[in-house]
Amino acid sequence: FYASYGAFYVLIFVLNKKKLGFSVVPNDEGKEKFKKSENVAFYRRQIQGPNLKYRLLLDSLVLTEKGARFELLEDGTKTRLLLSLTPCKNDTVRIVIDEIWPIKTRYRIPDVLTGEPPSEQLRVESKTKDSVTLSWSSGRYQVRVWHFPFRLEVLCDQEVIVTFNSKDKLWFESLQNKPRNLASSQRSKLEEDKNSLWRETFRNFEDIKANGPSSLGADFCLHGFQHVYGLPQHADRLRLRDTSDGEPYRLYNLDVFAADLYCRLGLYGSVPLIVAHKPDRTVGVFWLNASDTFINIQYSPSDPQGGETPPVKKRRLRPQTDVHWLSESGVIDCMILLGPAPRQLFKQYAQLTGYQAMPPLFSLGYHQCRWNYNDEADVKAVDAGFDRHKIPYDVIWLDIEHTDGKRYFTWDPALFPKPVALQQHLEKKKRKMVVISDPHIKVDPDWPLYREARDGGHFVKDREGQIFQGTCWPGESSYLDFSCPETRAWYSRCYSFDKYKGSTPSLFVWNDMNEPSVFNGPEQTMPKDAVHHGGWEHRELHNLYGFYQHMATADGLTSRSGGSERPFVLTRSFFAGSQRLGAIWTGDNVATWEYLKISLPMVLTLNLTGIAFCGADVGGFVKDPDPELLVRWYQAGALLPFFRGHSANDTKRREPWLFGEEVTAAIRTAIQQRYCFLPFWYTLFHFAHTSGMPPVRPLWVEFPEEESAFTEDNQYMIGGALLACPVTEQGAQTVKVLLPGSDEIWYDISSAKAYKGGKSLSLPVNLDTVPVFQRGGSVVCRSTGSGTCTADYQKLPLDVTVGLNSQASADGELYLDDGHSFEYRDKKAFSLRRFSMASGRLLCRSASEEGRFDCDNVVQSVSIMGVKSKPTTVNVHVPGAKSISASFEFLEACCKLRLNNLNVRATTDWDIQIN
Ligand code: NOJ
Questions:
Q1: Which of 415, 554, 873, 876 has a C-alpha 20 to 30 A away from that of 439?
Q2: How far is the CA of 348 from the centre of ligand 1 (A)?
Q3: In a domain, 26, yes or no
Q4: Are residues 61 and 125 in contact, defined by beta-carbon separation less than 8 angstroms?
Q5: Would residue 157 be called left, alpha or beta, if left means φ above 0 and alpha means ψ between -120 and 50 degrees?
Q6: Are residues 693 and 707 in the same domain?
């Protein structure tokens, strides 16, 4: 039954058929419905193709305001290309290659980059008969282009960091006019079949290529790098694998139910960004292309872990990684991000594709979802269950069954007759509701929304120019063309309160199935020859489809409040830049330990590639988790940015209180702990929003020189301060924790016990243990006390926990604003505070001149870990008032000092002197 999504749908369809009155049942087929690289003609053409050698015509150099232009020529095929090179102010280099005289314009991706990064003026540094070296004002970096064979090197202080075309993989199929005799002549038909230039078949599906072959590819050598990350989404480890002996990574957004683990086929979303790291540099390659894309990775010397035989002693070679990108269409548009440190790389990438949207505070709380909560009474009962069991939560979700026959923007009249009253019931407790809204629209001429979309020309067309139809949840459906700005505007208006009957300001949205999923389409998606706005084929922009729906939905939610309230939209499909629009989750996982384990590197990879607000279905979507797995999943999920429990319609109910008191208590603790850390999470999101730093980070981001941490998947940093190592092994009695940094001190947050860094620790665990360590040198703020949702926690007093480093100092920030509006942006209504401790003095100061936000939040207690001896006195000084002495406790066994009843405001300056 679980073997395939196809089978799964069959069952659901059969169950629903009577109710829905249609008879389309998707084929019962498994993962064979998805292509492997060998099934893809452009991939075959490039991999088998002739070895092309381009020459760069040095005399064609033109220096422009935006950099330089060159011509490239391939002698054999006579292909002529134009290469534009743009160095940007933020230490990125953009390379664009297009045909010199294309017979028609090739697709260039709009809307993903947030603007043209300011460019630098290039100057010729030196010239030989073989090469030209160009430099720009920053001075450190240079670009050298070689005449034959064509190479493009990026150098820093004379050392080559990245070479473009180092293996002569540059490939560019020029657009051609369709040969007249293509269909008629038998001979050319054979030709055509061999290379699938104009027509390609896969299983029963035929793809007619209106523009013929248009693929492109290029390779990069990353010198000195042996660790490469990125390219979500795959259910795989953090470090990308060498693909020499298997499938390439594919980026093609697909609805893959219960995806095979460690598999390189495409999943729901794509970010074509590779991040390479070595101890002294982090670089990135961003390949801006939204068509079907494959990536081959080759490590040299080859990866000893990959081989079966024990690694033999190799000649000391400078390691390198070769990355080969191949895409079906568009142009070559890539950006090399030069770092040099992870922090700078994240900023460079955010400057290109945008920063993480600042989430409304409620969305960082816990979300309770299920396919489906059956009716209004069910929703109220679940909501009450959280109160009864004293488990905080913020949002309850409604899946597709809440609608009237899978017509989004409607409500099932029998099950959800009073949606407004239901939302008000929740809102009284400051809780929210999220409903699903998919991109397919039921073909129903009696439904006004369908008619409006049809008559407004808002649907994608098929290759014959008719409105495209495919099957999805409602049966026969058409698909909105979100790539069209007018369609997006129309769709956004569908979310206005007057149009969306039954919606209130506390209703938020979930975009699912937006790869898009088409049950009877090739690879269960839209045919590549479907046609979008502007006449562009679907193949050009397939990976943008979900991104655009997300954009229109987020705009709709923002606009319904007149632009004052932050939206919250969760999407399944995504692309580079989706971080600007909201949250994503990793799709249909399974309730097994392996899927729990893989959720960590999946989320870390997303965070490395800009998508900070993400998580996996807690508990596993498919199948029933046993109580131990469920508890461990809650514990892990509480330590990831987006925290939502979700389960499929045929699973057993699994609200946290259904498994006995021990399990309820463990889940309660995990969720409460998440709520206590909300001030910390919210601050991390402020930094993701303003500096591009991901809230969750692979260890190497914080410990760039610690090579033993470069392949660590199971533990990671939350901000710079906390090291999380959730338990993901069944029946674990101990957990091995790598505490990086030989100069570091780490404090177990539950015991305050200090450990020296630079070694591994075997930590005994029971079902309640969630291994989290605070780094010496950091300050973390959290809420103390308890409440029912984020709105309660927002008002609770704060505890400031200081972990001293070996110099007895520490610092950290706290960000505060109203938690829901854009006033932080438009009126600078925010407060950023810095807590810093040195020489026995803890200062609370403003960390930003810009913001001003008055709130009543108080710091009630301060805990300082790593205090060597009991102080004699502790004095609190608030400017303009007399110093007062504070009561304190000293826990000698763990060297922890605790100051209670401080009652000092978080937004005013104060000092605490410890004598
Ligand atoms: C597929 C989604 O991945 C899942 O989360 C959802 O419950 C179902 N669609 C039904 O809408």
A1: 415
A2: 34
A3: no
A4: no
A5: left
A6: no
Distance in Å, CA 512 to ligand 1 centroid = 7
Catalytic residues: 512, 515, 588
Q: What is the mean pLDDT of each run of 10 residues along the chain (915 residues)?
A: 39 39 42 95 95 94 95 94 96 97 96 90 96 90 97 96 97 92 54 80 96 97 98 97 96 96 96 98 98 98 54 67 98 98 98 98 98 98 98 98 98 98 98 98 98 98 98 98 98 98 98 98 98 98 98 98 98 98 98 98 98 98 98 98 98 98 98 98 98 98 96 97 98 98 97 96 97 98 97 98 98 98 98 98 96 94 97 95 94 96 96 96
**Domain match, 326 and 412 both:** no
**Closest residue CA from atom 7 of ligand 1:** 371
With the most atoms of ligand 1 within 8 angstroms of its CB, the residue from 8, 440, 513, 519 to mutate is 513
- At residue 26, the pLDDT reads 40
Please tell me the chain's helix, strand, coil percentages from 3-state DSSP, rounded to the nearest 5. 25, 30, 45
**724 touches ligand 1 (CB under 6 Å):** no
Task: Find out whether 771 and 728 touch, Cβ atoms under 8 Å.
Answer: no
Report the CATH number at residue 289. Answer: 2.60.40.1760
What tokens were used for 224? 């000195």
Instruction: Compute CA distances 449 → 409, 470, 484, whole Å.
Output: 9, 18, 17
CATH code for the domain of 888: 2.60.40.1180
> Which of 371, 589, 614 maximizes ligand 1 atoms within 8 Å of its Cβ, making it the mutation to test the pocket?
371
Q: Which pLDDT score, from 0 to 100, does residue 189 have?
A: 54
Q: Is residue 12 part of a domain?
A: no
- What's the angle, vertex CA 575, arms to CA 520 and CA 434, rounded to 5? 75
- ∠ CA(455), CA(456), CA(457), 5° rounding? 90
Q: What residues pair up with 614 in beta bridges, in sequence order?
A: 584
Residue 276, domain member (yes or no): yes
Residue 549 inside a domain? The answer is yes
Is the beta carbon of 515 within 6 A of some atom in ligand 1?
Answer: no
Alpha carbons 577 and 547: distance in angstroms, whole number: 8
Distance CA 628, CA 273 (A): 36
Distances, alpha carbon 175 to alpha carbons 216, 349, 725, 834, in Å: 11, 31, 52, 57
CB 440 less than 6 A from any atom of ligand 1: no
| Domain match, 685 and 723 both | no
Q: What is the 3-state secondary structure (H, E, C) of 279-305?
A: CCEEEEEEECCCCCEEEEEEEECCCCC
Give the number of residues written for the chain. 915
Domain boundary among 651, 666, 697: 697
**Ligand 1 atom with least separation from CA of 649:** 7
854 burial type by CB count under 10 A (0-12 exposed, 13-18 middle, 19+ buried)? exposed
Do 605 and 681 have their domain in common?
yes
What is the distance in A from the centroid of ligand 1 to the CA of 24? Answer: 19
Q: Residue ranges of the alpha helices (H) in 149-246?
A: 186-195
User: Domain total for the chain?
Assistant: 3
Q: Give the alpha-carbon dihedral of 897, 903, 909, 914, to 10 degrees.
A: -20
Claim to verify: residue 662 and residue 790 sit in the same structural domain? no
**If DSSP codes are grouped into helix, strand and coil, which group holds residue 62?**
strand
What torsion, rounded to 10 degrees, do the Cα atoms 445, 449, 455, 456 define?
-160
**Domain enclosing residue 834, as ranges:** 699-914
The residue from 668, 697, 726 where one domain ends is 697
Q: Residue 313, exposed/middle/buried by CB under 10 A (0-12, 13-18, 19+)?
A: exposed
* Token duo for residue 754: 């200090």
The reply to whether 422 and 474 lie within a common domain is: yes
